[in-house]
Amino acid sequence: MAEKIDWSKYVQEQDTALTTEVEKIDIKEEKKKDEPNKESAADEASPAEVSLLTKIIRKGLVSNKNDLEIQRQNPNSPLHSVKTFEALNLNPNLLKGIYDMGFNAPSKIQETALPTLLAVPSQNLIAQSQSGTGKTAAFVLAMLSKVDSTKKYPQVLCLSPTYELAIQTGEVAAHMAKFCPEIEMKYAVRGEEVPRGSKLTEHIIIGTPGKVMDWALKFRVFDLKKIIVFVLDEADVMIAQQGHQDQCIRIHKELGPACQMMFFSATYENDVMEFAQAIVKNPIIIRLKREEESLDNIQQYYVMCPTQDHKYKALTNIYGTVGVGQAIIFCHTRKTANWLAEKMSRDGHAVAVLTGDLTVEQRINVLDRFRGGQEKVLITTNVLSRGIDIEQVTIVVNFDLPVDQNGRADCDTYLHRIGRTGRFGKHGIAINLIDSSTKHICKSIEEHFNRKINFLNAEDCDEIEKIAA
DNA sequence: AAAAAAT
Q1: Angle made by CA atoms A109, A114, A120, in degrees to the nearest 5
Q2: What percent of chain A has pLDDT over 70?
Q3: DSSP secondary structure, A159-193, as one string
Q4: What is the reported pLDDT for A196?
Q5: Is A230 helix (H, G, I), strand (E, B) or coil?
Q6: pLDDT tens-digit profile of A10-65?
Q7: What is the dihedral of CA A125, A127, A133, A139, to 10 degrees?
Q8: How far, CA to CA in Å, does A311 sit from each of A40, A322, A330, A411, A432?
Q9: Residue A245 is inside which H or E element, if any?
Q10: pTM of the prediction?
C-alpha cells in the first residue's frame, strides 16, 4: 500500500489490457466491438491533463474553515449540509427504515455527504471520515434512493474489499430498505452463482471485485454501462492495493461516462487521493486534516513483550479483563492467527478465529457467532481490519503491528484496525504488543498521528481492568 | 503478508 503509484503509466497499461480483454470476450459480437472503446479513449483526459487539473484544484480550492476540508471543483454543484433526514426529501418508506435502524439525526459525515450524494443532476464524491462515523449508512441511503425499482436490471454497484464487509453492507441496506420491498439486492461474492446466459434482475449489486469482474466482464450477467451509481467502499485500498487495484480499475473503466461515483474511506494517503481524483470526474472532496484522522475516544497503549511467550502471557491477562465487552486480536499472518487460536483454545480460552483460508460458510458462521457474543475474543488477520462494525468490541489488540511489504509501519491499516472499537463515539482501547525490534514501528505510528501511545504493564491486570471499565 | 476469482 505504501508503494508509490505511477498512475499515469498505470492508466495507459489498463487501456491496452482492457482492449485485449474485451476483444477476447466479444469475439462473436463483432458489430459492437469498436464503439465503446473509442468512446472511452476519446473521453479520457491524458495523464498530463489530469495531473495539471489536479494540481490546480489542490492549489486553488482548499478550504480550511471547518474541521472537514472540502474542495469544490464545480461551482454550480450543491454544497450545503442537512441537520435532519427529513430535509432530504426521501421516499417516506426509506425514512421509516432509517428511523427503524435507530438513527435520529444525521452524523457529521452524513450531514455533509448526503446532499451531494442525492443531488440532481448527480455529483461525484470522494469522502473521508473516521471509522465508526456512519459512512456506510450514508452511501447505502444514496444507493437506495437512486434506484428505479420499475427497471429490472442492476443500476447500483457497490464494491467492498472483503467478503465480510460486502455482507455487512448488504445487511445495512436490507435493514434500511425494510419498508421498500420493491428494491431487490444481489451479492456478488464467493459462493454466489448465477446460471450462465441469464441476466440479473436485481437493482443493487453489492460485491467483491473478483466476482463482479467475473459476472460483468466474463459472463455478462449484467451491464456495467447501465450502472448509474458506483460506490467504492474503502476506496484507498481498492484503488491502490496490489490485487484489488487491477480488478477495481478495470470495472471502473467499463462504467458509462454519466455514472455517479461515490468513494469512501477513513484514510487516503496523498498519492492515493491524487489517483482517486484522476479517475473521478469533477468530484466534491471531503477530506480530514491529519490531526483529525485519529479518534480521541480510543485510548492507545503498548506492552513490552521480549518474547513470544511474553506476548502470549500478556494476551491471556487481557483476555481475563474483557468482561462484558469483546476483543479482536490482529496477527500479521494466517499462520500466527491459527497458531494463537489453537494455543489459547488448548489452554481453555474460548476464542474464534477468522482468516481467508476458511470457506465462506465458515467465515460467515464465525462472524455471526462473534456478533452474537458466543465468543468474547476473535483472532484474525488484516481481512477484518476494515469496516467491520461490532458495537461490543471494547479492546483491539495488535499481536503483531501492521507493517507494509518493506516492513515499515502501515499507519493506515493501524488506524482501521483500532477503529474496530470506539464505534459511534463509544470508548475503546487499543493495545499493541511490541518488543525491542518493533518498538520503532510503534514510535513511528505515534508520531504519524501525533497521538500518545502509553506504556502499559501487562502483568498489572488491575490497571487493564481499570482502563477497560 | 493478506486479500480477491476459479482453477
Answers
A1: 155
A2: 81
A3: E-SSHHHHHHHHHHHHHHTTT-TT--EEEESTT--
A4: 86
A5: strand
A6: 444 443 333 223 222 222 233 333 333 333 333 333 343 333 333 323 322 222 22
A7: 30
A8: 54, 17, 13, 21, 10
A9: helix A245-254
A10: 0.85
Lowest mean pLDDT among A55-64, A151-160, A450-459: A55-64
Query: What is the distance between the terminal CA atoms of chain A, rounded to a whole angstrom?
Result: 36
A188 close to A215: Cβ distance less than 8 angstroms: yes
Reported as a single tens digit per residue, the pLDDT across A297-322 is 999 999 999 998 999 999 999 988 88
A8, three cell numbers: 499515469
Residue % of chain A over a pLDDT of 90: 77
Around Cβ A374, how many Cβ atoms within 10 Å?
A: 11
Residue with CA nearest to B3's C1' atom: A383
What value does the mean pLDDT take over residues A264-271?
A: 96
* Phi, psi values for residue A232, rounded to 5°: -115, 105
A370 CA – B5 C1', rounded, Å? 27
For residue A72, the model assigns a pLDDT of: 47
CA distance A398 to A298: 14
Round and report the angstrom distance from CA (A242) to C1' (B3). Answer: 9
Which nucleotide is closest, CA of A212 to its C1'? B5
Taking the C-alpha atoms of residue A160 and residue A188, their distance in angstroms, rounded to an integer, is 10
**DSSP tag of A421:** S
Q: Give the pLDDT score at A60.
A: 24
Q: Which residue is nearest to nucleotide B5 (CA to C1')?
A: A210
Residues by Cβ under 7 A, strand B = A 1, 161-164, 188-191, 207-214, 218, 241-244, 247, 332-335, 355-357, 381-383, 404-405
Give the CA A70 to C1' B4 distance in Å: 32
Residue type, A353: V
Question: Per-residue pLDDT for A67 more than 60?
Answer: no
As a whole number of angstroms, the distance between CA A239 and CA A252 comes to: 10
Query: Is A262 within 8 Å of A240 (Cβ atoms)?
Result: no
Q: Domains along chain A?
A: 7-288 (3.40.50.300), 298-467 (3.40.50.300)
Query: Contact A286/A61 with Cβ under 8 angstroms?
Result: no
CA of A75 to C1' of B3 (A): 39
State residue A31's pLDDT score.
Answer: 30
DSSP A67: S
Which has the minimum average pLDDT: A169-183, A384-398, A455-469?
Answer: A455-469
DSSP assignment of A272-296, as one string? HHHHHHHHSSS-EEEEE-HHHHS-T
Q: Are strands A204-207 and A393-398 parallel, antiparallel or unpaired?
A: unpaired
